[in-house]
Amino acid sequence: MRSKKSFSFLSLILFFAAFFAIIYIGLAKYYENGFSFNTWINGVYCTGKSVEEINDELKGEYETRSIEVIYPDGNVEYIFPDEFDFRIDFSSYLNSIKDSQDPYLWILNSKSRVKKLEISPLYYYDEEELISQINNLTFVKEHTRGLSPYVFFVMGENGYELIDNHVKQVDFEKLYDSVLKALYTEDPVILGDEYLKEYEYSDEEKAFFVEKDIIDKYLETKIVYDMGDEEIPVDSLALSGFIELGDDGLFVKDESGNLKIFDDKVKAFVNDLCDRYNTADKSRLYTTVNGEVKTIKNVYYGTIIDKRAECDYLIKAVKENIRETHTPEYIKKGFALGEDDIGNTYIEIDLTNQVLYFFEDGMVSLCCDIVSGKPGVNGTPQMICYVYKKQKAAILRGDNYASYVDYWMPIYKGIGLHDASWQREFGGERYLTHGSHGCINLKKADAKYIYDHIEVGIPVILYY
Fold first, then answer.
1. Which of 6, 168, 182, 406 is most enclosed, with most CB atoms within 10 A?
2. What does the alpha-carbon distance between residue 40 and residue 114 come to, in Å, rounded to a whole number?
3. Residue 59 class from Cβ within 10 Å (0-12 exposed, 13-18 middle, 19+ buried)?
4. Which domains does the chain have, with CATH numbers?
5. pLDDT (tens digit, 9 = 90+) per residue, 57-67?
């Protein structure tokens, strides 16, 4: 009886053992074509699934994902994978995992030993097109803008200045890596200063900064021309006009390696100065005491700057980096200096109305009647001249006369201002009948006042 029961129990055990063996082997056979029991890859349950199935499932998530690029101000741009033919594949890693699994040992993958794996794909894309997409980002464009060449000298309102069009450069390699990483993560690319780097200047570009130091020192030259009522600075713009840029964009040097000062450009500056301040022998517009504007062509008064001396001075001063106020050398010098070298102290003679006005410091200190040359015979010319001599007790001689005067002040050739005791009256129309030989006849008291208050060189303006 016992043996019968024992046989039945043994048979039952063998049956269940055979049953479980069949199931176990069946599952093992099942896992031969797929991943083993309890296998998770990148969060995907892979048990029993083939490499192709898992590859497709993983790819779908990545290949449809756009890359979000976030700017510091919150603006967003996107890079789309299909625009650079992006493709990924997990097959190689999936096959490695599957090959490492023994389907007959699937039982070892118990719940306590879950196979949770993380793998990265192999990815394929059109690199040139991806680079193009990254370069098209506003962030990249903003940090690659600039003219070519990037560093150069230009003549500005204040002379030569160095222009540097460089901006911080994009760390393209870092940005490129971040974009690739974003292809298989859900993290956006958040732009900031970490994606920027200082521009690295080439040796050719560094030469421009060395040149700037040279130019800055050169422009420290501070020459100011004292022209009387005005001061003319040889400023940065003028100094820049004396030098030139060569074909390489740097300044032309002389044989000694110093900045080359071009003589013709210095001469041009001096010529402009002379054109402005040389007044001698030039027709002038003169505004009379009554506000009338007269054109006076006969001018025997004025200023002439010594052009050669000033060119020599300026070339030397610029080369030596001189800082000073300079009074130019004159060949001929007016009583006053400046564009209006008549100044505030002068004599104005209205030949039509026979009146002399003596201006001292801009105010009329004497207004008196005169007798000028007789028209048609010895008429006094309209002109601008100056008192070139002062003499007391002089004898004036002509073809048929010799006249004594107490005060003699010649202004042009034999024409001068003097007292005339022989004139019984002055002013009005007396000059028409009793005019002088060209001189300006004055009452003795008026002649004395003028003589005592003028200096040699004072300008005299005569007009009709």
1. 182
2. 8
3. middle
4. 216-282+300-332 (3.10.20.800), 346-463 (2.40.440.10)
5. 888 766 667 88
